[in-house]
Amino acid sequence: MSILSDAVRKTRATLADGRDLFYFDDNAQYVSGERTRRLDDPRPLSDRYAPVLDENGVEHPVTGPTMRLDVLTGEWIPHAAHRMNRTFLPPADANPLAPAKPGAAYSDGEIPDEDYDVVVFENRFPSLMRVPGVDDIETTFEDVDFWRVRPAAGRCEVICFSPDDQKSLREVSPQRMRTIIEAWADRTEELSALDGIEQVFCFENRGQEIGVTLHHPHGQIYAYPYLTPRTAQMLVQARKHREATGRNLLRDVLDAELRSGRRIVFESEHWVGYVPMAARWPVEIHLAPRRDVPDLVALNEDERADLATAYLEILNRVERFFPPQENGELTKTPYIAAWHQAPVGEGREDLRLHLQLFSFLRSPGKLKYLAGSESGMGAWISDTTPEKIADRLNEVAQ
């Protein structure tokens, strides 16, 4: 049974090298089936799993990214050397996330159609990729028992929020935002069902300061074959809390923030936005559903509709957080928007869906650098207080 709204139609295509692509349409002509998207990809790309030739012309099986275990922290570290050659800040006429140009000859864009509403496709330069025929097993490295390696057998997808490369996500309509939410939920459900996947992460990097290499409005969806360190750490804390109280930690956090009220920056029928009591970033907001749900898939129709307007409101406040430029234009706030979802398997009942949106920018032109204490020791030092962040977010509400 599909979890998609009746107002959204999903159409699958296959790119020239075998990767999946999905159109998510809210345009009535496409939802009704009156029109359909272009499904063929004319590019002369070789199959991504085809054998490769070395410098001597000898054929070898294709290899995917691998992971090595950091025995000092217990964390898996993926190594994807092929990403060194990925697209970096291309000119406007070579944007691989833009729709195909009407009547143009072959161009190396990822979307075959000349327009789209929302589109999702497998990343051409993935950090995580399952290669057919390669078993996802741990092995030793250099004959050292405690050095462990395994394939990075996950999946990376790109989601394009708009065909307009001049737009940011905050500028899309509530209807289009709803379609994006539908796409996030659909991909979370399908990726969670893949063999070996332990966690699905939907996120957006916005701004060159964050590390964005393509300015087209887009996000990413990672399906990890392991629990990420952040989720594993939250799971430890949540289990300790449940053992001590019998309650869900994230539920109690939301209730405590609502009782305090001091850091609440947004409330609607189904969602609450707040600056967390121990916020670490110069700008940070958590957005959580009032109802206990593990992931985006579990949101009902009303919660998704409410989220569409709530999300845009939060993004607009973040954009107004800093004073405007001298010419009156808004100061573009770089940010990371990260959807924390419960794990696919064990620990699902202990965690709870919430968005963490944060920015490195501490004032216009000045970034919060992760220097010695943060990077070397993981010991965070904040340059402001959560209450000041909340006051400013409430001040710029319109």
Automatic annotation (TrEMBL):
- So which domain of life are we looking at? Bacteria
UniProtKB keywords: Carbohydrate metabolism, Galactose metabolism, Metal-binding, Nucleotidyltransferase, Transferase, Zinc
Its top-level enzyme class, in one word, is transferase
Catalyzed reactions per annotation: alpha-D-galactose 1-phosphate + UDP-alpha-D-glucose = alpha-D-glucose 1-phosphate + UDP-alpha-D-galactose
Span of domain Galactose-1-phosphate uridyl transferase N-terminal: 66-227
To which pathway does this protein belong?
A: Carbohydrate metabolism; galactose metabolism
Q: Which residues form the Galactose-1-phosphate uridyl transferase C-terminal domain?
A: 241-397
Q: InterPro entries given for it? A: GalP_UDPtransf1, GalP_UDPtransf1_His-AS, GalP_Utransf_C, GalP_Utransf_N, HIT-like_sf
Q: Name one GO molecular function term.
A: UDP-glucose:hexose-1-phosphate uridylyltransferase activity
Co-factor requirement: Zn(2+)
Identify the EC number(s): 2.7.7.12
Could you tell me which PROSITE patterns the record lists for this protein? GAL_P_UDP_TRANSF_I
Q: Which Gene3D superfamilies match?
A: HIT-like
The record's annotation in PANTHER family points to: GALACTOSE-1-PHOSPHATE URIDYLYLTRANSFERASE
Tell me which family the UniProt entry assigns to this protein. Answer: Belongs to the galactose-1-phosphate uridylyltransferase type 1 family.
Protein name as catalogued:
Galactose-1-phosphate uridylyltransferase
